[in-house]
Amino acid sequence: MVFFPSMTDIILHYLDILDSAGRLTWHGGAIPESEVWLKLGGDHGGGTFKFSVQIVNTEHPNSLSNIIPICIFDAKDTPANLETALGTYRPQITELQDRLWKGKVFRLFMFGDYEFQTTVYGLSGSSGVRPCLHCSCMKRNMQLAPG
After folding, report:
1. Is the dihedral of CA 136, 138, 141, 145 positive or negative?
2. β partners of residue 43
3. Minimal CA–CA distance to 127: which of 142, 105, 144, 108?
4. 104: CB partners within 8 A, 6+ apart
5. Strand residue runs (E) in the chain
6. Which H or E run contains 56?
7. Which of 26, 56, 94, 125 meets the CB 3.0–4.6 Å disulfide criterion with 31?
């Protein structure tokens, strides 16, 4: 496993670099001037799991050049593997939510496929009682739209 012990330090370092290079943007007001948006997420592919951060306040936040790898390991993204690998970052995520950078608050978003997100949020997946990532609707109450 390869990882940065301090996700917070690496994010702050990248923000300082982007700021000094004039590469931060608030996308014409889409992001409030008082906020820095970060996407945290993971993906399994090619035999490895990658956990990374993207700073959304850049011109092309989804570009490979704006992805900061935080942790990489050679295994599937099972609940046990994610807990082992990413457990160290849980307090740092809480710290980021309570921290300011140059007077700006952090707003965090999760990204990744459905399986990864349900695992991170502790949901049982599509076969669970409450399978939705965005609401608390019970599966038995879900229906297809008419037509």
Report:
1. positive
2. 50
3. 142
4. 33, 34, 35, 36
5. 2-3, 35-45, 48-55, 67-73, 100-101, 104-112
6. none
7. 26
Residues belonging to the chain: 147
- As a 3-state breakdown, the chain gives helix, strand, coil percent values, each rounded to 5, of 35, 30, 40
Q: Indicate the residue type of 3.
A: F
Q: What is the dihedral of CA 21, 101, 119, 138, to 10 degrees?
A: -120
Residue 94 CB burial class (10 angstroms; 0-12, 13-18, ≥19): exposed
pLDDT digits (tens, 9 = 90+) for 110-145: 999 988 888 888 877 777 887 787 778 887 887 777
- Type of residue numbered 102: K
Helix ranges (H only) for 30-70 are none
Structure tokens at 51: 């956990």
Residue 27 CB-half CA count within 13 A: 13
Lookup: tokens for 17: 């670099």
pTM of the shown model: 0.86
Per-residue pLDDT, 54: 97
Q: What is the pLDDT of residues 61-71, one digit of tens each?
A: 999 999 999 99
